[in-house]
């Protein structure tokens, strides 16, 4: 039985950016959307599931597939019956490297389901991601990557009794993220397992100060000369909450973060790692940062994604 004849029809294609979370001191809060994208096409069918994946990393192609789980969760939230699904995924975001691949998969599934269900599209603007952000946070377990993936730019995300919310901040124009991706993979779950349950108050306090400074330093609304901005970013990206516990496990990553910082470049662990994020200011510093790499990292000079997750095409009869 075909989709249209069963009354089950629709096809949507979505695009979701990679994200780098934390940016040093903003553990589980800060996110930056990057110009590297996964694309997913979802077609509704009468029954069953097919998943076609193009891209480097192998994933299960059954109901445990993260995009499928997110679509199903979104249809449940929207009170829609579960349809059959045919997915075509183009995966460009490397998995288990601290670039938000799981967040992108979850957001892709949610915005695809929303578009197919003719619900709200992805929200943009301060705190406006609504139910999609709340659901994405529930599935991901922390709101930072999913917030930036949904709305783009630099985001400050949090959760309270009402679920997750975020504030989107337009990043300053000259920011040039450079990402260094090692071949080593590290699951976020395992990396979170390395963190202590308690941290010294002094570490929390000095990280809090850096985070507040970083939120200002990332904002386009804060005018600053390039050299001043670079110096402030370097100071603002210090972290005492999670990186000290994670970096010892990945020697090459720790060494690269240290080397870039010694060069005056604001480098941090990207998300839970093991990739490194450098927040270069302007093309010249980005070139210097990219040149600091050794053979074991792939260097990705990226733009900031400012638009967030996008529905590229939708055909409700497709
Ligand atoms: N596009 C995708 N499709 C299906 N599953 C995915 C996709 N992207 C990520 N995943 C799942 O998420 C896992 C990686 O998530 P995680 O450990 O949080 O690392 P990160 O999000 O930093 O890449 C993968 O091993 C896979 O199980
Ligand atoms: N705040 C989280 C961010 C994880 O990001 P990912 O890209 O590594 O999944 C953490 O630090 O655990």
Automatic annotation (TrEMBL):
<dbReference type="InterPro" id="IPR000870">
    <property type="entry name" value="Homoserine_kinase"/>
</dbReference>
<keyword id="KW-0547">Nucleotide-binding</keyword>
<keyword id="KW-0791">Threonine biosynthesis</keyword>
<feature type="binding site">
    <location>
        <begin position="94"/>
        <end position="104"/>
    </location>
    <ligand>
        <name>ATP</name>
    </ligand>
</feature>
<keyword id="KW-0067">ATP-binding</keyword>
<comment type="similarity">
    <text>Belongs to the GHMP kinase family. Homoserine kinase subfamily.</text>
</comment>
<comment type="function">
    <text>Catalyzes the ATP-dependent phosphorylation of L-homoserine to L-homoserine phosphate.</text>
</comment>
<dbReference type="InterPro" id="IPR014721">
    <property type="entry name" value="Ribsml_uS5_D2-typ_fold_subgr"/>
</dbReference>
<dbReference type="InterPro" id="IPR006203">
    <property type="entry name" value="GHMP_knse_ATP-bd_CS"/>
</dbReference>
<keyword id="KW-0808">Transferase</keyword>
<comment type="pathway">
    <text>Amino-acid biosynthesis; L-threonine biosynthesis; L-threonine from L-aspartate: step 4/5.</text>
</comment>
<protein>
    <recommendedName>
        <fullName>Homoserine kinase</fullName>
        <ecNumber>2.7.1.39</ecNumber>
    </recommendedName>
</protein>
<dbReference type="InterPro" id="IPR006204">
    <property type="entry name" value="GHMP_kinase_N_dom"/>
</dbReference>
<keyword id="KW-0963">Cytoplasm</keyword>
<dbReference type="InterPro" id="IPR020568">
    <property type="entry name" value="Ribosomal_Su5_D2-typ_SF"/>
</dbReference>
<keyword id="KW-0028">Amino-acid biosynthesis</keyword>
<feature type="domain" description="GHMP kinase N-terminal">
    <location>
        <begin position="66"/>
        <end position="153"/>
    </location>
</feature>
<dbReference type="GO" id="GO:0004413">
    <property type="term" value="F:homoserine kinase activity"/>
</dbReference>
<dbReference type="InterPro" id="IPR036554">
    <property type="entry name" value="GHMP_kinase_C_sf"/>
</dbReference>
<dbReference type="Pfam" id="PF00288">
    <property type="entry name" value="GHMP_kinases_N"/>
</dbReference>
<keyword id="KW-0418">Kinase</keyword>
